[in-house]
Amino acid sequence: MFSKKNVLELPQRVTAYYLFFGLTAILWLGVGVVVIAISVLGSRAKNARVHQMGRAAPLLSVDYLRNGEQNLQSLVNRIQYESSSLFCAVVSNDGRYIAHTLPEKIGRTALEPVGPRDQWGDVQRIRYQDEQTRTLLEYCIPLRAGDRQLGSFRMTIAETGTVGTWMTAARHAPLAIMFPLTLIVAGGITLRRIVRPIGDIEGQLRQAATVASVEELTLSSVPIRGAASVGWNRLVQQRDVGGCDQALEQRIREAGSEYRHRKMDNLLNNLSDGIAVTDGEGATTFANRPLLALLDLPTAESLTGCSLATHLKGVWDLPPGQVLLDPQLHARSVIAEVKLEDGSSPRTYRVARNPVQTSTDELSGGHVWSFRDITQQKSAESMRDQFVTTATHELRTPLANIKAYAETLTLTEVLNPEQQKKFLNTIHTEASRLARFVDDLLSVNSMEVGSLTVDRRETDVLRLLQEVATKLQPQMEEKQIRLDVTLPPKLAKLHVDKDKLAATLVNLLSNATKYTPRGGEVALRTKVSEQALVIEVIDSGYGISADELPKVFDKFFRSADPRVQEESGSGLGLSLAREVARLHGGNLRVNSELDKGTTFTLTLPL
Predict the structure, then answer these.
(1) 34 and 137, same structural domain?
(2) Band of pLDDT at residue 600, cut at 50, 70 and 90
(3) What average pLDDT does the segment 436-442 reach?
(4) 362 SS3 class
(5) What does the pLDDT look like over 136-176, one tens digit per residue?
(6) Which of 207, 309, 314, 555 has its CA 20 to 30 A from that of 470?
(7) CA distance 100 to 156
(8) Residue 482: how many CB atoms within 10 A of its CB?
(9) Which of 248, 236, 312 is nearest to 278 (CA)?
(10) For residue 17, pLDDT beyond 50
């Protein structure tokens, strides 16, 4: 792409810097895509096996109760074929194989493999190596009929190799990086075209610096790309027509050099990244405006001549082992991520340091530094991972239950009406859970595009509060939670969206119930002032830590507290509740202390 010369011209240098930083970002993006894809593929494979085990267990249990060992072999063969596993088996309570896809093992004692174990509910996984040194994964789930243990079902598969997983994951990377890579290349071509005339002018001025006499110098016009090229062409024409004296030529050289430096400074100062140049001694010779703002310095003179590494070490408190400060790496390009604790808003920066080469490809000892704020990128990656985890859980669990109970109802002919009713109620409950999750996602999407609205109608809020409390009463009684409802004797009717307000109150009371231990207390209190209706939901539950309290209204946020993680939830309810309050002209606030309870305060204007 670049012509082979001893000195890179200005267009090549500017384009090279632009492509270097852009392609570095694309490279990191590609690696991130592959790593995430590997994680997702591994999670999908594990989830698929757990789902297959959960689906096969009730089928084998029902058939074993009805027909004994008669049909187990055919069922095991079918499951092995459908799951593409190495082999499947049913083990009796006394440890014998009563069905196996390898017939010669039927009747033998089932040996327990030795290796690390993982557990997901009833499903257990053991990783071990067989006689052929293959790494195998054995999934095991007990077969039960009520409280009765019938035996266990085992499925063994070969673990996918690391190279195969990388090859599968790498196929997704080009789709993610192709479009930004195309934009970077197009930007590099455009940038080179823009600065080409300035490079031609620079080349002629460089030639003027090498000739013995200015009279021997031949100047030529450059393509017109702006005021600089027009001015240069006018000077060339004047010199060709009437000649120029030595003073004019000197002014031309000075003007060209000054313009070139000013143009370069303007380009660097208008970048979003912080850029600095240091000499062989580590002293700063240039710093653009974004870097000065990052380091909270008023002018470039505050940093010029000072050691940038020493300044960073003092301001950012970099550890002694940081690669940016390692003197043995001065001749190499290094990149590091630096996390800064700035009060309640920590920031993450990617700092790159690259050695500067001379015209003879030798290292000059100086460096070019770049500073990029990647806080939003890191936050987006975290939110994306949290969304994938939450959505996978919220969709997989009810779907697995619906499918398992539906298959049981389809394949079993001897269920009594009570069992059928229980199965159908479970299917209805899980389907409703799925519907709520989808509705929440649609509401969040409407909220983000600004299309979420409220249908205000005259509503008896006092009656609405009583209905919500009555609706949540059975859920609280099941956990032996005492509900204290304090309502005014009279309350004027308000123009609100009854359905959205009811959903908000149900969400607040349901959260209070879920995250309050058995035997706790939940209070619903209402106060009326001259200008607003104040509704408080108070619980004596787990509470929220001070670090997590500012994030409770963020979409998909869920506390890292293990007690909270045990309960199901999508992390959407509170963000929607706050949006509903805002659309009504009100507000939703939270006060909490860990292990002492939480208070949500909903304020609605009268």
Answers:
(1) yes
(2) very high
(3) 64
(4) coil
(5) 888 898 988 878 888 888 888 887 755 555 565 556 556 66
(6) 555
(7) 11
(8) 12
(9) 312
(10) yes
Asked whether residue 502 is assigned to any structural domain, the reply reads: yes
Q: 537: which residues sit within 8 A by CB, 6+ positions away?
A: 505, 508, 509, 512, 522, 523, 524, 599, 600, 602
Between 141 and 30, the more confident residue is 141
**177 assigned to some structural domain:** no
44-56 CB burial, b ≥16 within 10 A, e <16? eebeebbbbbbbb
* Residue partners of 341: CB distance under 8 A and separation at least 6: none
pLDDT (tens digit per residue) in 417-431: 787 787 787 777 777
Instruction: Verify that 295 and 398 share a domain, yes or no.
Output: no
The answer to whether residues 601 and 524 touch, using CB atoms and an 8 Å cutoff, is no
What number is the average pLDDT over the span 324-333? 75
- Among residues 116, 147, 170, the one where a domain terminates is 170
Nearest in space to 287 (alpha carbons), one of 310, 315, 306 = 306
- 8 A C-beta contact, residue 601 and residue 536: yes
Residue 2's CB: how many other CB atoms inside 10 A?
Answer: 12
The answer to whether 14 and 196 have CB atoms below 8 angstroms apart is: no
**Is 547 found in the same domain as 476?**
yes
Full residue range of the structural domain in which residue 284 is found: 271-373
Q: Number of folded domains in the chain?
A: 4
Q: What is the rounded average pLDDT for all residues in the chain?
A: 77
Asked whether residue 208 is domain-assigned, the answer is no
Is residue 150 included in any domain, yes or no?
Answer: yes
pLDDT band of residue 1 (cuts 50, 70, 90) is very low
Name the one residue in this structure whose structure tokens are 């109970």: 405
Q: Any idea what the CATH number is for the domain that residue 300 is in? A: 3.30.450.20
Q: Are residues 384 and 342 in the same domain?
A: no
Note the residue count of the chain.
606
